[in-house]
Automatic annotation (TrEMBL):
The keyword Lipoprotein does not apply. This is CSN8/PSMD8/EIF3K domain-containing protein. The lineage of its organism: Eukaryota, Viridiplantae, Chlorophyta, core chlorophytes, Chlorophyceae. Pfam families: CSN8_PSD8_EIF3K. Coiled coil: none annotated. Keywords: Cytoplasm, Nucleus, Signalosome. Its main location: cytoplasm. InterPro entries: COP9_CSN8, CSN8_PSD8_EIF3K. It is found in: Cytoplasm; Nucleus. GO terms for biological process: COP9 signalosome assembly; protein deneddylation. Residues 39-160 form the CSN8/PSMD8/EIF3K domain. It comes from the Eukaryota. One of its GO terms (cellular component) is cytoplasm.
Length: 199
């Protein structure tokens, strides 16, 4: 468990789930998950890494007495919402807690990671989004959502001709295509070149 504490102190949250998995497997006790095991931390660490199936299997292995713990119940609610793709439910579960001192920084880091992921998904899927919708997707206030969007170069505009009747919307600026990645048109062109070479 010293390695887990060190990973938490170094903010190496992606290593926590693997360290806890290894500690569970190496334990000589058959009741390791009932003997003061940091189950909520373990569940959150799997969610942080995006290993939702592993988190579900961990929850199924937990004894009922551990599942009754409020923190484990909160982590389970968060996992259920993440599994179902309910981002607003994930944010409610993250805010509701209660998170113990070892799990609190991981829950905060999970929220930050999910917010970045949501912004990436919005950038890929939307050309315009209202601040209210972005705030709901990112689990923050509209002001925080607008600030995060503007930090990515998105522009706040008014749809509907401006004036008082217009609706504020953020114009999404897609991230630049990285070297080695192709946009859909370039991929289609490359595919057609390959096909013509095959004939």
């Amino acid at each position: 468990m010293e390695q887990v504490n060190a990973a938490l102190q170094n903010e190496d949250y992606s290593a926590v789930a693997g360290l806890l998995d290894e500690a569970e497997l190496r334990s000589p006790s058959t009741t390791v998950l009932a003997d003061g095991w940091p189950a909520a931390l373990h569940l959150l660490a799997h969610v942080y890494n995006g290993d939702l199936p592993d988190a579900r299997m961990l929850y199924k292995r937990l004894p009922d007495t551990v599942k009754a713990d409020p923190q484990v119940s909160a982590a389970w609610r968060l996992l259920q919402c993440a599994w179902q793709g309910n981002s607003e439910g994930v944010w409610r579960a993250l805010r509701a807690g209660p998170w113990s001192p070892p799990a609190a920084p991981l829950a905060t880091a999970l929220g930050e990671r999910l917010r970045v992921r949501q912004l990436d998904l919005v950038a890929a899927a939307y050309s315009h989004v209202t601040p209210a919708r972005l705030a709901a997707l990112c689990g923050c206030s509209e002001e925080e959502a607008v600030a995060a969007a503007q930090a990515r170069g998105w522009k706040l505009a008014t749809e509907g001709g401006g004036g008082e009747g217009g609706v504020a919307a953020l114009e999404v600026v897609a991230p630049p295509v990285s070297r080695g990645e192709l946009d859909s048109l370039a991929a289609l062109e490359q595919l057609s070149v390959y096909m013509t070479q095959l004939e």
